[in-house]
Write a structure and sequence with these properties.
The protein is 62% helix and 4% strand. It is mostly helical. A hairpin with a 2-residue loop joins strand 1 and strand 2. Helix 18 crosses helix 19.
Length: 532
């Protein structure tokens, strides 16, 4: 019996062939005791046992060894019908399960045979792929070795080792792949400038350095305006050939008397400030010049703005505030938190999408100071270090704009309470507001400085927007360079309306000396409105 389907005409033709249909059905209707299928070569043999140990045999062929076809199309139904006829529905139900299990076992066996056959075909390709992968890994290791050696040679040519990763990155924090790889380079300083700063702000400047040339007078002239709102970090960056952050930080730490107060080792201080400066990437906006600018404005708010008096800041508070401003964007890759989260970048995973870059800036700096030659905190007691570190953590984390609304509302509520800012929580809240004001102070600066910073932020925004477009991601608001003429002025106006002006107004409630910055922001906003 061949498993097939027949039309009426075809079936009549088959009846004339020598197929024992009558004997088959006669055997089924007799007192048959059982039907036992057995696979023999490419044939399924049905043994029908009758009374008196008489056995009738029928053969079913499927045209091959695929017996599952016979099971599904013929034998299953035949056995169920036979048992219903002989034993009733209960026996048939139990047997149906047995038959289905047998069918599945047959199918599994056939699939296993197919898998083995495919495995034979795949194995050569798999071996070739593994070999190619091993070759690729070896090539990558070799390339990494060349890159490490090149980094060491560059640093040797610069006159100093790579102060952040002297033997290659021991714990390299992966930035987003779209970020340009940054190798820190030490920018030489002018010893005459440092000597002049120490002479001006310390009791003794130490031994005078040999005349190494340079433009010490020009640098000191720029530094003479460090207490002014229009202090020009761009001019200082040019005069120091990239050392604005180092020079501003060195100057302020001596100006506040912090080096003397905490007995900070001069060599360690220089090492640390050079390391911090060189750890900033050459981004259009989030670079060492921006850090120098934020540091200066933080100083302005503390001294000229009156924060130091208003909340009774200690020397530890001043040290923590100035250092937090200096390192607040350390190792920034030029792409914001949202980009890291949307692209599933390593840092976003590491910090669970919470203040991704702010956590990274802090972690990298505090990892740096574990090395003694950069440990600017080494002369502090454990209690002092703990207090300074906690303040720095809060201040830098406060620069995350994702936390702006929460911090701003807490500050507004605290302003409504008529009591001194004497508790540690209140003091740190005020210092958080100070660094937040500093971080977004560009909109409150004189027009020339504001315009320069606006161009820089636009360049960095558009670089991220271009990258998002290449990755087929929706372009972030105000980062589409194709809409520059309309969107950028609109973005600046909105930023001033909803973020800058309200924050500075709240800050001026505590520090009336900062009210002028609100007026300057309004003037800058009006300038944009006149152009749109």
């Amino acid at each position: 019996v061949y498993i097939n389907s027949f039309s009426e005409t075809e079936l009549n033709q088959k009846k004339t062939e020598k197929i024992p249909w009558p004997n088959f059905f006669k055997a089924l209707k007799s007192n048959a005791k059982s039907i036992v299928p057995k696979e023999v070569a490419d044939t399924l043999v049905l043994n029908i046992a009758l009374e008196a140990k008489i056995q009738t045999t029928f053969q079913l062929k499927s045209g091959g060894k695929d017996f599952s076809i016979i099971h599904r199309l013929f034998l299953n139904n035949l056995m169920i019908s036979f048992l219903q006829f002989k034993g009733g529905e209960a026996d048939a139900k139990f047997t149906r399960l047995e038959i289905e299990a047998t069918t599945k076992r047959i199918e599994i066996a056939e699939l296993e045979q197919r898998v083995l056959a495919l495995q034979v075909e795949i194995d050569p390709f798999s071996k070739n792929a593994r070999g190619a992968l091993d070759d690729a890994r070896a090539a990558k290791e070799q390339c990494d070795g060349f890159r490490k050696r090149l980094r060491q040679l560059r640093n040797a040519m610069a006159g100093d080792i790579d102060i952040l990763y002297p033997d290659g990155p021991a714990m390299y924090m992966l930035h987003t792949p779209q970020s340009v790889e940054h190798t820190p380079h030490v920018i030489p300083y002018n010893p005459k400038v440092l000597y002049a700063i120490r002479q001006k702000y310390s009791e003794a400047g130490g031994a005078a350095p040999a005349d190494t040339g340079g433009n010490c007078d020009e640098v000191m002239h720029i530094l003479s305006k460090i207490d002014d709102w229009d202090y020009d970090v761009f001019a200082l960056e040019k005069a120091t050939k990239g050392g604005a952050l180092f020079t501003t930080a060195y100057c302020l730490l001596h100006k506040y008397g912090l080096v003397k107060h905490f007995i900070i080792d001069e060599t360690i201080l220089i090492n640390f400030l050079q390391a911090v400066q060189s750890g900033y990437h050459p981004n259009a906006y989030h670079n060492a010049t921006h850090a120098a600018d934020v540091l200066h404005i933080t100083h302005y708010i503390i001294e000229s703005g009156g924060l130091k008096t208003a909340i009774k800041m200690t020397q530890q508070d001043c040290l923590a505030s100035l250092l937090a401003a200096a390192i607040h964007d350390y190792d920034h890759p030029g792409f914001n938190n949202n980009f890291h989260i949307r692209t599933g970048a390593y840092l976003a995973t590491l910090y669970n999408d919470r203040s991704v870059l702010e956590n990274h800036h802090l972690a990298q700096v505090f990892d740096l100071v574990k090395t003694p030659k950069y440990n600017v905190f080494s002369s502090l007691t454990w209690e002092q270090m703990k207090d300074v570190r906690d303040t720095m953590l809060e201040m830098v984390l406060a620069t995350d704009m994702g936390m702006h609304a929460k911090i701003y509302q807490n500050f507004r509520r605290r302003l409504n309470e008529e009591k001194d800012w004497a508790t540690r929580d209140d003091q740190r809240l005020a210092m958080n507001i100070a660094i937040k004001m500093s971080d977004i102070s560009n909109c409150c600066r004189p027009p020339a400085l504001y315009s320069a910073w606006a161009q820089n932020i636009a360049a960095e925004f558009y670089n991220q927007g271009d990258t998002e477009a290449r990755l087929s991601l929706p372009i972030s608001p105000f980062m589409d360079r194709r809409k520059d003429k309309v969107d950028f002025p609109k973005g600046q106006i909105s930023f001033m309306n909803y973020i800058v002006i309200p924050l500075f107004e709240a800050g001026a409630s505590l520090l009336p000396n900062m009210d002028f910055a609100v007026k300057q922001a309004q003037a800058n906003k009006q300038n944009w409105l006149s152009k749109t």
